From TrEMBL:
Keyword Lyase belongs to the record: no
GO BP annotations, alphabetical order: carbohydrate metabolic process; chitin catabolic process
Protein keywords: Carbohydrate metabolism, Chitin degradation, Glycosidase, Hydrolase, Polysaccharide degradation
Cross-referenced InterPro entries: CBM5/12, CBM_sf_5/12, Chitinase_II/V-like_cat, Chitinase_insertion_sf, GH, GH29D-like_dom, Glyco_hydro18_cat, Glyco_hydro_18_chit_AS
Stretch forming the signal peptide: none
SUPFAM superfamilies: (Trans)glycosidases (SSF51445), Carbohydrate binding domain (SSF51055), Chitinase insertion domain (SSF54556)
Catalytic activity: Random endo-hydrolysis of N-acetyl-beta-D-glucosaminide (1->4)-beta-linkages in chitin and chitodextrins
The enzyme's E.C. designation: 3.2.1.14
Domain GH18: 34-433
A GO-annotated cellular component: extracellular region
Protein name: chitinase
Length: 652
């Protein structure tokens, strides 16, 4: 970083001195001084390859920063979501409601979980590989930058639980056309003027924070690991405006090369066959070289630099020669579960790679000397997959600690296992037990079936902790009912409890169910006719085999409760409608909910076709069945309605 000129007088006021300090005051760190930054993909909810991941599944107690991926710069140069439905409209576990002023989607979840984990920062990440199409034009002039910056300020004011922005411009100074085989890729125009314009953009965002009372908000970037790409930027100048820099020390090698390699090597391997000219890939495309370049060449403090870790693989096919498939010839990219089949990259999430190790012809190897990373080689299929595992991540964390770097970034969190073994390892290595966790509450007596009312006590082994509880099945928060004395449970009840204490991570939630008295369950309601697609209005009746039971129903998609509309006569359905019904009777367990969707269509339903742009609600036929579009998208090969339940729902 270029150093500030020395102040040569003592007559400058303290206020003036403060205005000369550009860096933000909102930097977040654990007590160890390390950050763990997890990128969260807003598209993960649609795809089992991303574990259909929601904000609530993030290991909030194992990270310090969550980067929400992605927003973009729109054609008017304003900040915009790449999926407004997922971010703001989709009804999720903690959505506030359907009113226009109530939060839903990922942002509603962020608001909820920020109340539970106020020390974890949530940042909106802008761009990414496929959505950098307007960075160059937006950054070109003071006026266009001002439009974008004002939209950033507006977002941070509207959603105060969002802690800043992360710019993932890939990459300033490089002109990249869209991938013709990837309909999601918008490309990323660029030119030499980006070098100074990028710096100006970061400086002006920081100034806008300060001028608008947002000094505590964070400003970060995702920086390239390639020294040749860094040369097209001004890291030594713009670093002063940033809280920290996320260095993408992955994707250093991939199937764009015709030789297999390690996608995220820690050190250079003298046996690496990569060229040294015109770009020295052999010696400088590795984690250590990237970090030392930023630290030593551009004079950026080590604690401001975060090392990247890939929770996915890069892979090749048609592999022949090499040593156990490494540094071998290849004919192209393998196709992984994270890939667009039309433009593959051999991308499998770690949780899948772990199940492939030494199975079905895949043999696991490792470079313990230089790269410190593993790979899988299937000789019969000619496939090599380079990735991160617990051993290589442990070495990466040791490298961070021994060199004084600021922490770790992970791309991306949905690639971890269901128990987050990679993230937990990183937390233990970089942060450890500095922040203790409150003990989990204990119920007495335990949940179960009882003939009489029960007096229930809740205890917590952590002295001074507050126990908060709920009786309606919702997740307890710091504002839920405070446990102060024993609870009397005289009807079937679900109790949830969570313990909180200042300066500690909140406990895990304990859930117990007490079933009191009659344990019989009301019969499930039956619809006639059944849901389906019809060409005219339908008269729907609902019956229940349990005599005397009340049937409650909804038509707005919400779960029926004992106060929902009472079914008393047939329901006329003249337009597409989803009806949910549940039966209740005093002294018995209420029935399960039955959902039936009636699609009333007077138009011809066409067959599903590749390349067609479908909108929510569209009906198609495929393999003799009728499907309804759930999410707007363009149909791609392999995305047939029967295999993509996130996009299509079976109607009939």
């Amino acid at each position: 970083m270029k150093r500030f000129k020395k102040i040569i007088g003592v007559i400058l006021s303290l206020a003036l001195l403060i205005t000369m300090i550009p860096a933000g005051t909102g930097i977040v760190k654990a007590a160890t001084g390390k950050n763990i930054v997890a990128y969260f993909p807003n598209w993960g909810i649609y795809n089992s390859a991303h574990r259909t991941m929601t904000v609530g599944m993030i290991p909030w107690d194992k990270v310090t920063v969550i980067n929400h991926a992605f927003f973009e710069v729109d054609s008017s140069f304003k900040l915009a979501s790449t999926d407004s439905f997922a971010d703001f409209d989709k009804m999720m576990d903690h959505s506030e409601g359907w009113d226009t002023n109530q939060l839903r989607g990922h942002f509603g979840e962020y608001k909820y979980y920020k109340n539970l984990y106020p020390n974890v920062k949530v940042i909106v990440s802008v761009g990414g590989w496929t959505r950098g199409q307007n960075f160059h034009a937006m950054a070109a002039t003071t006026s266009t930058r001002a439009v974008f910056i004002q939209s950033v300020i507006d977002l941070l004011r509207k959603y105060p639980f969002i802690d800043g922005v992360d710019l993932d411009w890939e990459y300033p100074g490089i002109n990249r056309a869209p991938d013709p085989n990837d309909s999601y890729d918008r490309g990323c125009p660029g030119g030499p003027e980006d070098k100074q314009n990028f710096t100006s953009l970061l400086r002006e965002i920081r100034q806008a924070y300060n001028n608008n009372g947002l000094n505590g908000k964070l400003l970060t970037i995702a920086a390239p690991s390639g020294y040749d790409k860094l040369a097209l930027q001004e890291p030594d100048i713009y670093a002063q405006y940033l809280d920290f820099i996320n260095v993408m020390t992955y994707d250093m090698h991939g199937a764009w090369e015709n030789t297999t390699n390690h996608q995220s090597p820690l050190y250079a391997n003298p046996n690496d066959p990569c060229p040294t000219s015109p770009v020295d890939i052999k010696n400088r495309y590795n984690t250590d070289s990237a970090m030392k370049t930023l630290q030593q060449v551009y004079k950026i403090p080590a604690e401001k630099l975060l090392v990247g870790s890939p929770y996915y693989s890069r892979g090749w096919k048609g592999v022949t020669g090499g040593v156990n498939g490494m540094y071998a010839n290849a004919t192209g990219a393998a196709t992984g579960t994270w890939d667009n089949p039309q433009s593959p990259g051999g991308q499998y999430p770690y949780f899948t790679l772990k199940t492939m190790e030494n199975q079905n012809g895949f043999v696991k190897y490792r470079d313990d000397t230089y790269a410190k990373t593993p790979w899988l080689y299937n000789a019969s299929q000619g496939i090599v997959l380079s990735y991160e595992d617990t051993t290589s991540l442990s070495a990466r964390c040791d490298y961070i600690n021994s060199n004084g770097y600021g922490g770790l970034i992970v791309w991306e969190i949905s690639g971890d296992t269901s128990n987050f073994e990679l993230t937990t390892l990183a937390f233990q290595k970089l942060i450890g037990s500095t922040t203790q966790t409150v003990a989990t509450p204990v119920f007495s007596p335990a949940g179960g079936t009882y003939t009489n009312a029960q007096t229930v006590t809740i205890t917590c082994a952590t002295s001074g902790a507050e126990i908060r509880y709920t009786k309606d099945g919702t997740e307890p928060t710091a504002s839920s009912a405070l446990y102060s004395s024993a609870l009397t449970v005289n009807t079937t009840t679900t109790l949830k409890a969570k313990a909180f204490k200042s300066g500690m991570n909140s406990s895990l939630t304990t859930t117990v169910v007490y079933t009191i008295g009659n344990t019989q369950t009301v019969a499930t309601p039956v619809f006639s006719p059944a849901g389906g697609t019809y060409s005219s209005a339908q008269t729907v009746t609902i019956t229940c085999a349990t005599q005397g039971a009340e049937i409650r129903y909804t038509t707005d998609g919400t779960e029926p409760t004992a106060t929902s509309a009472l079914y008393s006569s047939p329901i006329t359905v003249s337009s597409t409608t989803t009806i949910k019904a549940k039966a209740f009777m005093t002294g018995m367990t209420s029935s399960s909910t039955v959902t039936q969707t009636y699609t009333i269509s007077s138009t011809q339903i066409t067959a599903w076709t590749i390349g067609t742009a479908y909108k929510a609600g569209d009906l198609v036929t495929y393999s003799g069945k009728t499907y309804k579009c759930i999410q707007p998208h363009t149909a791609l090969a392999g995305w047939t309605p029967d295999v993509v339940p996130a996009l299509w729902g079976l109607v009939q």
